[in-house]
User: Fold these one by one.
Assistant:
Number 1:
Amino acid sequence: MAAEGKTTAKSGGQMTVVRGLDVARYMGRWYEIASFPSFFQPRDGRDTRATYRLLEDGATVHVLNETWSKGKRDYIEGTAYKADASSDEAKLKVKFYLPPFLPIIPVVGDYWVLYVDDDYQYALVGEPRRKNLWILCRKTSIDEEVYNQLVERAKEEGYDVSKLHRTPQDDPPPESDAAPTDTKGVWWFKSLFGK
């Protein structure tokens, strides 16, 4: 497993962040097993996943986030990069442009890898304000014991795990081109109003 180190969160508490993350091994597809609901995802989203690909510069990651809502595929693309290139901590910045149908407004957020197992099969991802949390897995389902261990770890890091919402995942997962795509960003506008 990548080493872990304590780092001071903005709230003043200590948070464990992975050190020495093997970025190449972290690339690929991750399925969202659970997360805190957020305005940038449809409330009824399912089969949510992220696909990461290291770009030629070796420092920038292409990010493709996908979810399905009302039979349509919603997605947004962006980039991720280390918050501090000289640090070995797995603290990244992610940048997306909104709204997804006319990407002109840059939005930057934190992406901290709090835990990844030795085989890079599941991960716990958060951010310093503890307002967002994701449990990710390489498969569409996760062993319940492992899930509970990750929830407990998040709780130890100061997250209110009562906010965690399990993400419905189909097995096998849908293909990106198997459903119509929401090109108008309807889900994004609805999410602004809590729908």
Note: The two ends are 39 Å apart (CA to CA).
Number 2:
Amino acid sequence: MLCLLGFSPFSTLASPSSIITVSVFRKFFPSNIANPFYTYNDFIAATKYYPTFGSTGSLDVQKRELAAYFANVKQETGSKLG
């Protein structure tokens, strides 16, 4: 039904860069300002290789996907990136 109204669960509502701004990224990884192992520009560049990452579904779904990704990065790096 939603598809008939012009909404698709796979439509792009926002890009990762419009959800995760530089200031949000720096809050996640504050130490990267002094030691830029993983930078915002690296993150945005990587999303270009995976165009559906964090950019499909509802805005809420997009935010959840990005939040899950960053939670995993923090967990797997032992918070060494931030």
Note: The helical segments are 16-19, 22-28, 40-49, 59-76.
